[in-house]
């Protein structure tokens, strides 16, 4: 699901009038995201420039670059950082129809500043033989 949604986002950005390349700032491990972006470029001919780093460092970079930032997409690892980036005015609101048509409401920000690409399961495991009942 992650690659499909990311492809939709990148294609949508391209259709909004961006050049034949998209700049992605990603806090995801390069070895995990690069194959998806490579497949995207191969399928579309759209070049993806990837900058990777820790989420907080990328948010700081966006802050320093300000309006001159080349970033088109920020991929980070949790909604809390996206919330903080939104509060700092570092994110641009997505068009309402873009979000509503492509992503269920439970996977996007109420104000259309970000879209979730994946969901993690938080699992609690225990040894039943050692847990008091």
What can you see in these coordinates?
With 133 residues, this protein is of the alpha/beta class. Helix content is 42%, strand content 11%. It has 5 helices and 3 strands. The protein has helices spanning 2-15, 30-44, 55-65, 79-87, 96-102; strands at residues 21-26, 47-52, 73-75. The chain has a 3-stranded parallel sheet with strand order 2-1-3. α2 links the parallel β1 (21-26) and β2. α1 (2-15) packs across α2 (30-44). The N and C termini lie far apart (39 Å). The model has no long low-confidence stretch (mean pLDDT 82).
Structural class: alpha/beta
Q: How much helicity do the residues have?
A: 40-55%
Spatial shape: globular
What average pLDDT do the residues reach?
82
Strand content: 5-15%
Over the alpha carbons, how many angstroms does the gyration radius reach? 17 Å
Q: What distance lies between the first and last C-alpha atoms, to the nearest angstrom?
A: 39 Å
Summed up, what is this model?
With about 130 residues, the protein is an alpha/beta fold.
Record the SSE blueprint:
Layout: H1 2-15, E1 21-26, H2 30-44, E2 47-52, H3 55-65, E3 73-75, H4 79-87, H5 96-102
Parallel strand pairs: 1-2, 1-3
Please name the defining characteristics of this protein:
single chain, 133 residues, alpha/beta, 3-stranded parallel beta sheet, 3 strands, globular
